[in-house]
Amino acid sequence: MAFLDWLSRVTAPRLEGDGLVLRLPEIRDYAAWAELREESQGFLAPWEPAWSDDELSRNAYRERLSRYRGEARERTAYNFFVFGDGGATLYGGLSLGLIRRGVAQSGTLGYWMGERYAGRGHMSAAVRLVSIYAFDVEGLHRLEAACLPSNERSSRLLERAGFRQEGYLRKYLKIAGEWEDHNLYSLLAEDWSRSRRMGRDADRR
């Protein structure tokens, strides 16, 4: 088990800031993850793909971790768990996925938050940390995120993070067993640099 945890640590970044720690999931996180997901199922189910019968099983979790490590090694996706309390308390998860290099230099954000920790600003802070990493370290030019039009909480989160709605995607993702339309949001490196510069200028005043 320790060897698997070591592998996961060396293939993905660890991000810290705003009281949060973001890192790749490890075997030892299984119990906390399963408990948080199970108690939050009713809260999360309307916004996620339908759960499989073995969604919360240890074997399914192991398979998920294996996929996460492979994607991190290939630099095609980074799947983070979001922790508070210095890394002691699991709040949720956030992915920087579908990373494309070459002329695109883009990635897609996805996220979930345990119900008991929702609405406290934790995911907004996590999105900021991942945006810094995506633009300043990975050198991406564009981040995208999509959410259901009815998911007002997610829309507000993205807008606060500087994302702009730029499209409407018909039957984009299969959510809760149904193909659903989504609003498409994006954040560009130029927008990110401008917002950070404006923030620094405001601090000087």
Structure description:
The protein is α+β, with helices and mostly antiparallel strands. The protein is built from 7 helices and 8 strands; from the N terminus they run αββαααβββαβαββα. The chain has helices spanning 2-10, 30-39, 41-44, 58-74, 122-137, 152-160, 189-204, and strands at 15-17, 20-23, 78-84, 89-100, 106-113, 142-147, 164-175, 178-188. α5 (122-137) links the parallel β5 and β6. The protein is globular and about 40 Å long. The termini are far apart. The model is unreliable at 1-10 and 201-205 (pLDDT under 50).
Question: What would you say about this model in short?
Answer:
This protein has helices at 2-10, 30-39, 41-44, 58-74, 122-137, 152-160, 189-204; strands spanning 15-17, 20-23, 78-84, 89-100, 106-113, 142-147, 164-175, 178-188. The chain is α+β, with helices and mostly antiparallel strands.
Name the descriptors.
single chain, 205 residues, alpha+beta, 8-stranded mixed β-sheet, 7 helices, 31% strand, globular, disordered C terminus
Give me the secondary-structure topology.
Blueprint: H1 2-10, E1 15-17, E2 20-23, H2 30-39, H3 41-44, H4 58-74, E3 78-84, E4 89-100, E5 106-113, H5 122-137, E6 142-147, H6 152-160, E7 164-175, E8 178-188, H7 189-204
Parallel strand pairs: 5-6
Antiparallel strand pairs: 1-2, 2-3, 3-4, 4-5, 6-8, 7-8
